[in-house]
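Consider the following assembly input.
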Amino acid sequence: MDQAVRELSYAQAIQEAMAIAMETDERVFLMGEDIGVYGGAFQVTGDLVERFGADRVIDTPISELGGAGVAVGAAVTGLRPIFEFQFSDFATLAMEQIVNQAAKMRYMLGGAVSVPVVMRFPAGSGTGAAAQHSQSLEAWLGHVPGLKVIQPATPYDAKGMLLAAVADPDPVMIFEHKLLYKTKGPVPEGYYTVPIGKAAIRREGRDLTIVATSIMVHKALEAAKTLEAEGIDVEVVDLRTIRPMDKETVIESVKKTSRLLCVYEGVKTLGVGAEVSAMIAESEAFDFLDAPIVRLGGAETPIPYNPDLEKATVPQVPDILAAARSLAMGGR
Amino acid sequence: MTVAQAKPKDLPVGANLPFIYREYSAERLKQALHKMYLIRQFEEGAEESYMRGLIHGTMHLSIGQEASAMGICMPLTNDDQITSTHRGHGHCIAKGAEVSRMFAEFFGKTTGYCGGLGGSMHIADVSTGNLGANGIVGGGIPIAVGAALTAKRLKSDRVVISFFGDGANNEGAFHEALNMASLWKLPVIFVCENNGYGMSTSMARSTAVPNVADRAAAYSMPGVIVDGNVLSDVAEASHEAVRRARAGEGPTLIESKTYRYRGHSKSDRNRYRTKEEIEDWMTNRDPIVRYENELMEFGIIDKAGVEAIREAVAKEIADGIEFAKASPSPEIRDLERYVYTETV
């Protein structure tokens, strides 16, 4: 298809996806706190209220639990809501509706309904917003059967995966790293989708596989460039979806490189990297491993305010470089 | 919208009759008694099946609350929707579900409304507008508001009822949902079936206002208190709330004061209330006895008519249990089948 490709920011790509979804499907509407004339806390909805009206870009009261429940009820009865949480941390206020209702309703009712709700979560640290506005809680929701949980890392994927999420009959949770909103990349005009449940190989390599999520994909790619000069050929896998996870792509990559480094921002213990590691340990790729798997995850602390401490809480490029060098040199 | 039908015959002209006798035909009034018996005997049948080990888990029986479920549902059509509670068997029947498929669900069978995956606490019948009971206190209230948002956006004539108990009025979901429903003037009706206790904790010990309906003022909607054991009073409040909702005037909070005869669930030892209190409600305020006596007093039904209803209901219940027993159980290989929607 001939679709003109422009440079858009991650936030613009999401906004464009929501506009296309609303243009093409009357059932689609947006809900969230201050998403109307304010344009959203991160200006992702922008001026959509002017194009689509306050009936389709609905400002909710500060009621995360109730708002999420309204979105679930609307989805079950035939609409296609996209519900924006102002910060992913506020999912904690709505866990009841997300975990007990949205995720389980289809199952509990024996398939009598579907819950096609999309929830968007601005996530992650790096903005100086401290412990209650900086978390990466995707693994919490990734633990819940019935939900799909995605973490697009590029503007292209942000648009295509959001459109795939709106078309999906089941609840899809999108974690958008706040530091990605202003990053730019090529985005085709018009409608396209990027499948949920498929990882992407961002860089091919022979010596070492880095499985990364969200913003860590970019840090991994930056590290890979440096490592290339040192003669370490890194393969970078962008996981993109944490539930359902694309096991095949990761397994094939590890079989090829025989070394695995997982890099993710969420707290290391019981996080996404734990799952990827265990999945590899249980797979046929285990026999191909030449060194123990290494995880780089968030520190076992709340996110601190001080900027130096905040940076130290999550993996940075030098951490990835050190871990990759050590892993590439180690072995048996 | 329910249309007023032919009035019962032989009633004194101009008599100051309760609402339902002015609104409904004798046939509909007798059907209501039939359904109230159906709810009562369904609950008794479920309880007996539980005792006999045919149903596992737990269940929350609504014996004593039949007029509340029935009265609220009288003005509803199949297109109208409800969300229900852990004590939701009566709502499901009042909205139009078949008891055979409800028993099958409780027995964990594939012919059950949820294919045996939901059980008592998640009983639903989407085809008659029941979006489901709920294991979480207050969980269905925002969902009902969402369903009402759909009704408004699609410009349908549909109204949505959210049933919940007195315990739910102290959940945040209740307050958030009522606020949004009123703010957006949605066609939803909040029905609090106040049976006096959230599990063991009485209203007096849990709630800072004497009546749940008092809380309507905070959300700028009418708060109506009715005797939940008087069918006509409940139905009348429901009619007015449904009229308001369909007219685009927004939500209503109805507090239906009633009583559950049985304990909260199967683990309840009834230590928080007296035998005398339970006895008083059972002997002096039973909703079925009261309604039945009223129907006989107004000459709408006679003893033989009542007996015929009870026999028909007993047969329906016995047949339902047999249907459930004879139905197949789900296959373990289908365990994951409904976690996600199968896309072809």
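Chain A is about 35% helix and 20% strand. Ask yourself how this observation constrains the way the partners meet.
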